[in-house]
Write a structure and sequence with these properties.
By secondary structure, the chain is mostly helical. It is built from seven helices and two strands. A two-stranded antiparallel ribbon has the order 1-2. Helix 2 crosses helix 7. The chain starts with a helix and ends in a 25-residue tail after the last helix. The protein binds protoporphyrin IX containing FE. The site of protoporphyrin IX containing FE has 14 residues, from helix 2 and strand 1. Its EC number is 1.11.1.7. InterPro entries: Haem_peroxidase (IPR002016), Haem_peroxidase_sf (IPR010255), Peroxidase_pln (IPR000823), Peroxidases_heam-ligand_BS (IPR019793). Belongs to the peroxidase family. Ascorbate peroxidase subfamily.
Length: about 150
């Protein structure tokens, strides 16, 4: 997606650009499967094998890590080792004029990041909440309870 598309989606859910940047700041933790960024490290375009937005040393490490990902779909990389921007829209966010000021602000001021992240996350937590029989509190966050084997 372009940054405009991403901003529009967050806006349509009632989030400002600044709140969006704070929320996506959560990509400093966790990991991503190779298939989520493989297009950036293999066959990126007709002229370049690797997305030029990547630090090239980082990209070659990712190529090595993910070389077998089609046979082993569990292969993953940490979202933020030190070199941010594993995912394409994260890279964009650091250079787009609308988002860069907030990326820089939060990189400089961790206290502000934590405050704004907490505030935006509370907004997420009450979005489209299903009540009563309309929904369920999952035992596992990644599957419906009816599919539980336990
Ligand atoms: C433009 C918006 C976003 C995009 C395109 C995006 C994309 C992704 C992708 C592709 C992954 C890897 C998933 C996998 O391989 O299993 C991921 C992981 C993650 N995302 Fe996002 N995300 C976005 C916004 C957010 C927001 C708003 C939050 C939190 C409020 C968030 C929190 C996380 C976390 C914590 C992980 C790591 C999960 C883990 O380690 O299991 N992301 N994201």
């Amino acid at each position: 997606m372009t940054m405009t598309q991403v901003i529009d989606i967050f806006n349509s859910k009632g989030f400002t650009v600044q709140e969006m940047v704070a929320l996506i700041g959560s990509h400093t933790i966790g990991f991503s499967h190779c298939k989520e960024f493989s297009n950036r490290i293999f066959n990126f375009s007709k002229t370049t094998e690797v997305d030029p937005a990547y630090n090239q040393g980082y990209a070659s490490g990712l190529r090595d890590l993910c070389k077998n990902y089609k046979n082993d779909p569990t292969m993953s990389a940490f979202n933020d080792v030190m070199t941010p921007g594993l995912l394409a829209t994260d890279s964009l966010m650091a250079v787009d004029n609308r988002t860069k000021p907030f990326v820089d602000l939060y990189a400089e001021n961790q206290k502000k990041f934590f405050e704004d992240f907490g505030h935006a996350m509370r907004k997420v937590s009450v979005m489209n909440v299903k009540v009563g029989k309309a929904g369920e509190v999952r035992h596992r966050c990644d599957s419906f309870n009816e599919l539980d084997v336990n």
